[in-house]
Amino acid sequence: METGVAMNISTVLNDFQRKFVVPLTADITRTLEVTCHKSGEENSGNNFIGNAVVLIGIEATSQFTNPHSQEELNRFREEAKKQYERLDSEPRQYLSQRHSKTDGSQLANQFMKNYFDAWFSGRTEFGVPLCELVWAFGNPHTHSFYPHYQKRFNDKLISGAVDWLYKNEDQRIGIAISEIEGDFESQQSKLYKIEGNCFRVCPQILFVFFKRALTKFKNRVRSDNETQTQFLENYNRLSGIYGFEVKQA
Question: What angle, 0 to 180 degrees and rounded to 10, lies between the N-to-C axes of helices 9-16 and 203-223?
């Protein structure tokens, strides 16, 4: 496998696990376990902020599936800059320069399609794949502080909301992520609810889908040559950001 650097894939994945996966999932877990070991009417979850951190985790991980090499990305940015500079001042008011051939939303959606299990990836609601509905709330939750968001799908204006999961709903007793993982076959159906034209998603269940997808992704990196090549290219490209160990040949 030609990657420009000689690396043992197990060593690379161990580094990826230690410096990326562990701190990422630990932070998300802390956010989603805010109601654990508590109960009562005032025991409230983070709601849409909890959902936002899971979506951020999905987007961050999807960076490692970018199919374009660094050389391709550099060429694209250079050409995008040239094309943008050729525009007159009037159209520039309405346009922005692209910085990547594939944006984060595309990669995140594809990651969910490829690595979330069949229960998730095979579903549609309102005539739309489930991953697209889940992802529709990423930007408004993360950047705009919109707890309720509406988007038009197939001529229907769909409202989004977040439902927090409790071990006991009446007493509002918090539930640990490990408890959800231990009984996930029965818990996964609580991922979302449809109420009229409202799509309500549970961030804790979404997080367990994501954790399982991370394991599936790492296994595919080990076993599939094309996935491994793309992963190593992105691992090297992002090494300066995450402090990954790039071993020179």
Answer: 160
